[in-house]
Amino acid sequence: MPAKLNPDKARSALRTSAFLSAQTLLVLLMAWVVLWLMGKAWSVIWPVVVALLLTTLTWPIARFLRYRWHWKPALAASFVTVLFLAVMAGIIIVIAVPVASQSGELSTKVVDGIQSVREWAAGPPLNFGDDDITGALDAAVDRIQSSAGNIVNYTLTGVNTVVNGVITTVLALFLMFFFLKDGPRFLPWLSRQLPGRLSEDVPAVATRSWDTLGAFVRSQAFVGLLDAVFIGLGLWIVGVPLVLPLAVLTFITAFIPIVGALFAGFVAVLIALVSEGWVDALIVLGIIILVQQLEGNVFQPMVQSRGLGLHAAVVLLAVTLGGSLHGIIGSLLAVPVAALISVVYVYVREQLSDNPPEPEPEVPPEPGPDEEPAATV
Predict the structure, then answer these.
(1) Residues 95 and 245: beta-carbon distance below 8 Å
(2) What would the DSSP string read from start to end of 159-171?
(3) Which of 56, 184, 217, 330 would be 366's cystine partner, CB 3.0–4.6 Å?
(4) Who contacts 168 (Cβ-Cβ below 8 Å, separation ≥6)?
(5) Where in or outside the cell (predicted)?
(6) Distance between CA 249 and CA 27 in Å, rounded?
(7) Per-residue pLDDT in tens (0 to 9) along the chain, 377 residues
(8) Cα-based distances in Å from 315 to 168, 169, 259, 332, 334
(9) Do residues 85 and 75 touch, judged by C-beta distance below 8 A?
């Protein structure tokens, strides 16, 4: 005979489920409000985010100048900012000069490649005649002409995007300078402004988040540099044009895990196919696959020995979700945001456990000109 359902236990389980559901809805509502507010203030938040990413990359140099060579904070921040601008200008020159010098040759080969595809399509098994191809081209031209108004709108949108990008870059550079100059004073100041336990919890989470963000940016930069060197050497040996721009593209896209490597590899194989043919394109594809395997199994485990605490599947899902929500920006920020969420979750779990860890030491004040730093920000 089956056991009878206990009404009291059923009502208790139902009440507990309803209570947890209400709490979950409130948390989700609060998260939605925070995201909505961030969206409204994104024009201000985005330069801050870019400045933080740049600061994590350049802070080791500024720290060395301040605490080893005893430079003044403003002088160290100014030098690092100017050095960063010089490096960025050099990268732009490295990309622009080869592209400009080889653009004519590449455009000719692209036309030849299109003609080859046209001749292949005209033969078996497709047997597309010239009339079919001409009709398709005429239809494409008519579609473009009918969309002239949309093209104007897209052009204006593109100009607006470029202007916003320039403004964001300028603001991010100014903020990076101030972060490099006054960053070590931020956490002690923040601790003095917050009441009660918040004066301990918020600086502790901020310190862990900063360490995690810095580890991610610097490790990705180092791994991207290794990828760019090895892939660039492979492209140079094969004889593919635009080696330097492709190597720089590989380095930049390394900051977008998984998806960035696929995009850079696709561009390199496409240029090899257009310029050198199928055989060299397959060789380049093999080189890229080999380097990516070395990256995933050798480089990253060595460089990111402590890791971000994120499984590879979580990284892939985070990049996919970020890209679907906010495009390239979402893909770029997906992994750091997921890592910071993990940092907050781990800290909260530690505080709610039966045996919480020892409290972290207070952040000491900035060392004097003749003192060694006791902690980094």
Answers:
(1) yes
(2) HHHHHHHHHHHHH
(3) 184
(4) 46, 47, 50
(5) Cell membrane
(6) 40
(7) 566 777 888 888 889 999 999 999 999 999 899 888 988 888 888 899 889 989 988 999 999 999 999 999 999 999 999 999 999 888 888 777 777 776 666 666 666 666 666 666 666 666 666 666 666 666 665 665 565 555 555 555 556 666 777 888 899 999 999 999 998 888 888 888 888 888 888 888 988 888 888 888 877 888 888 888 898 899 899 888 888 888 888 888 877 766 677 788 888 888 888 777 788 888 988 998 888 887 766 666 555 545 566 776 777 788 788 878 777 778 778 888 888 888 888 898 888 886 655 555 444 444 544 444 444 44
(8) 27, 27, 10, 11, 8
(9) no
pTM of the model: 0.70
The one-letter amino acid code at 257 reads P
What is the distance between the alpha carbons of residues 248 and 243, in angstroms, rounded to a whole number?
Answer: 9
Amino acid sitting at position 72: K
Interior angle at CA 138, CA 135 and CA 142, nearest 5 = 140
Quick check: 286 and 269 in contact, CB under 8 A?
no
Phi and psi based region of residue 365 (left: phi greater than 0; alpha: psi -120 to 50; beta: remaining)? beta
Report the distance separating Cα 22 and Cα 131, nearest Å: 65
